Amino acid sequence: MLDLIPKIAPILLVDILNPVLFAMLVAAAGSARPVANSFAMLVGHTLAYFVAGVAVAFGFEQVADRLANPHQIDYALSAVLGVALLWIALDVKKDGAPVAREPEKALTPAGCFGIGAVVNFIGIPFALPYFAVVDQILGADLPLANSLGVLGIYNIGYALPFIVVPAAVAISGEEARPLLEKISGHLGKLSDIAMPWMFGLLGLVLVADSVAYVFTGEGLIQF
Question: Fewer beta carbons below 10 Å: N end or C end of the chain?
Fold first, then answer.
């Protein structure tokens, strides 16, 4: 179990670069109940991430078998997805990454919990680092309880850096807002740079994989 730490720690460092979650927490910190709302949003996001990880783990074997034995429709869908990702990459590069905005309605802890969960579920299809973590845990062939424990520890580690938002507001109140917004801005700029390249490269790989299948009968990506 401890052998997994060196493998998943670098993935965690990449995974926590989530400007959307941070921006949402900063928005919640500007509401009437800043500590309760931002903390509830983080809890909702983290629990949803854990549940999604469990769901992915149970379906991983079936997905892996399909990837090892792809059908023609899979390559057609890959081509469509690849083109879509290239379009998204160009659109994001032109307009910048989407900025999370505070909802117009008054925020409550229960509402923030739900928002955090929804934001997480929407982003799951693009959570490639998280899929890699699940793969590492399954590959370790641990007992079920230990596997769930490792996944839980990973999610706690993921949430820890973001706890700075409700903690800073609890300690400094409104004085913490300018600093949090500045950090959110820097993360947004980093995302503006990284997202187009990530989506663009993935799109190119998927399109090239589909084209290779058309001409050779085999894709470039082999599992």
Answer: C
- The answer to the question of residue 90 being in a domain is no
Q: Which residue, 60, 68, 31, 44, is CA-closest to 155? A: 44
CB 150 within 8 A of CB 142: yes
Mean pLDDT of 16-40: 85
Classify residue 198: in a domain, yes or no.
Answer: no
Per-residue model confidence as pLDDT tens digits over 40-80: 999 999 999 999 998 888 776 565 555 555 556 555 655 66
Tell me the three-class secondary structure of the chain, residue by residue.
CHHHHHHHHHHHHHHCCCHHHHHHHHHHHCCCCHHHHHHHHHHHHHHHHHHHHHHHHHHHHHHHHHHHCCCHHHHHHHHHHHHHHHHHHHHHHHHCCCCCCCCCCCCCHHHHHHHHHHHHHHHHHHCHHHHHHHHHHHHCCCCHHHHHHHHHHHHHHHHHHHHHHHHHHHHHHHHHHHHHHHHHHHHHHHHHHHHHHHHHHHHHHHHHHHHHHHHHCCCCCCC
Q: How many structural domains are present in the chain? A: 1
159: amino acid identity, one letter: A
Say if 93 falls within a structural domain: no
Asked whether residue 206 is assigned to any structural domain, the reply reads: no
Q: Which two tokens stand for residue 23?
A: 């921006």
